[in-house]
Amino acid sequence: MGFDVGVVPFNPDGWGPPDAPGAAPLLGGAVATASIPFAPFSRSDKLGRIADWTRNPGHPGAHGHHAAAASRDSVFDFSSADDSLAAAAEDSSFSLVDAKPPPKHPRFGPKWRFNQRPQLPQRRDEEVEAKRREAEKERARRERHYQNHRSHHHQGFRGNQQNTAKPSVDIQPDWTILEQIPFANFTKLSFAVNDQPEDLLVCGAVDSYDRTYDRVNPKTARRLERFKNRQFFKITTTDDPIIRRLAEEDKATVFATDAILAALMCTPRSILSWDIVVQRVGNKLFFDKREGSQLDLLTVNETAQEQLPENKDDINSAPALAVEATYINQNFSQQVLVRDGEKVTFDEPNPFASENEEAAPVCYRYRRWKLDDDISIIARCEVHAAGVDPTGARQFLTLNALNEFDPKITGVDWKQKLESQRGAVLATELKNNANKLARWTAQALLSGADMMKLGYVSRVHPRDHFNHSILTVMGYKPRDFATQINLNTANMWGIVKSIVDICMKFEEGKYVLVKDPAKPQMRIYQVPNDAFENDYVEEPLPEEEQIRPATDDVDATAQEMDAAAEAEANKATTQGGDGEKSADAAAA
After folding, report:
1. From CA 396, how far away is CA 208, in angstroms rounded?
2. What is the pLDDT of residue 157?
3. What mean pLDDT is predicted for residues 31-50?
4. For residue 483, what pLDDT is reported?
5. Could you tell me the keywords of this UniProt record (predicted)?
């Protein structure tokens, strides 16, 4: 049987079939008859076959013209039973794949219901608020990490902090740079001192440590007192009469103080800029510090990720906190001593104090280390108090204080965490003040102290930088604490030995070691012999000027604090209604 396409209508007026069948002439002159069935369908219906010419044409019993028409139309007709069965079979073989996860079944039942603790709406609100705060802290931490990583990648070393940082000393145009030492070179050094240090001379006198402060806790905190009548000395190396005498007797080739040596030993941990003056006189080296040097002040949050503002008017700025920390450290070292007790005296009295002034009790130990056959070093080391160990033997102690200024900045509230989480508080301080704690530990090791006492001093109110309270005091053995903070004594002496060897190669003159404010490196400059002459006075000073501390900022701040405290007491006294209230206010 052939395939009969049928008659295709022709529309001469446009596209598509003509409007009325038979009205338009057809292709070949015939008249069209609409014999193709049309079945309307919805858009949601599935479309199957349109035409199937493989079917059995026609129906049994059909003959003639009707059979031909039926065979022609049957290719478009799918209403028969066999077609319905075929479509059903085809639909049964088709399946949809649902990619959505199965729904979670509700946790109903007695077991789940009784295992869950009921939560009050207030508790839920607190948990939501706590989660929001944790999310904010995490976001801020990630942002700081991203900024630090970005600045480290582009500028090499904490460029975001050091963009505006300035060197501790103004670099003059006539200075000649001789060496530039990266900190990475210092971390690889190691040197073991041959002999144990030898005490050449011990001067001064110390009081005994008051052991009742070991039992102080945040609930029984004690107010920090002010000792404005006591003098604290920060005398540099060449101004020390004992060191001058030892140098004339040719007792060593290198002379320094424990603060200067500790700064050199902990150089890789430092972030802020500092400087040390080196004088080569004959075959001897003198490591000095300038008057008003940064080494006289204690840093605060030096190694923290979030840096402090530089605005001096802000009480939480880096310069203001440095003066406050130094002032706290001095007062703490005097308050924890036994009052009116028997002093422990040594070979000679305090070489810096006069008869008319009250000097803070300090023991100065002039100790000598032998670096090699040709080089030995003498350093003046300080001990702040004396004590007795459980066996009854005498101990030497160093006293230092950490200060808390704003818990929102540090992230740890000492008044709440010191009793239950002392380790967390110490870990936070090791992260934020790694350089300061390392220097204190190095000074304790140099002085031969048996114990180092660390006090935790906090502001009475975060916005009040005049009044403080002692929250607790902890004691550590210097060697154990050095191991805990990963301070290697061999590396410390390796740094000192390398710097001494470099300076010994220079000619006679004056040099300056400067910590670069923007990069982890140290620069050595050769300066004129008359450099810093405005700061160093050649003629001997009167006694009343010699006993003054080297840091004028600490004295000025102390006077401001005392004046503010007296003004507050007077104001409270005048505002009292009766005599009893006035007395209570004055006592407060």
Report:
1. 9
2. 40
3. 59
4. 94
5. Cytoplasm, Initiation factor, Protein biosynthesis, RNA-binding
Task: Tell me the residue type at 177.
Answer: I
Summarize pLDDT for 72-120 with one digit per residue, the tens.
556 666 555 455 555 555 555 556 665 666 665 555 444 444 444 444 4
- DSSP helix/strand/coil, 510: strand
Average per-residue pLDDT in the chain? 78
Interatomic CA distance for residues 483 and 495, integer angstroms: 18
Beta carbons within 10 angstroms of residue 481's beta carbon: 22
User: In whole angstroms, what is the distance from residue 458 CA to residue 467 CA?
Assistant: 9
Please count the structural domains in the chain. Answer: 1
In degrees, rounded to 5, the angle at the alpha carbon of residue 174 between the alpha carbons of residues 497 and 288 is 35
User: Is 75 among the domain residues?
Assistant: no
Contact 205, 361 (CB under 8 A): yes
Query: In sequence order, which residues have a C-beta less than 8 Å from that of residue 119 and are 6 or more positions away?
Result: 127
Specify if 535 maps to a domain: no
In a domain, 567, yes or no: no
pTM over 0.85: no
Contact assessment for residue 404 and residue 397, using Cβ atoms and an 8 Å cutoff: no
Which of 60 and 501 is assigned the larger pLDDT? Answer: 501
Cα separation, 367 vs 514, whole angstroms: 26
Report whether 209 contacts 388 (CB < 8 A).
no
**Please, what is the Cα angle at 568 between 565 and 572, to 5 degrees?**
140
* pLDDT for 345 beyond 50: yes
Q: In what order do the strands lie in the sheet with 394-404?
A: 222-223, 464-476, 451-461, 394-404, 385-388
Owning domain of residue 427:
176-527
Confidence of residue 368 (pLDDT cuts 50, 70, 90): very high
Distance of CA 263 to the CA centre of its chain: 20
Within a domain: residue 516?
yes
d(CA 454, CA 209) in angstroms, rounded, equals: 13
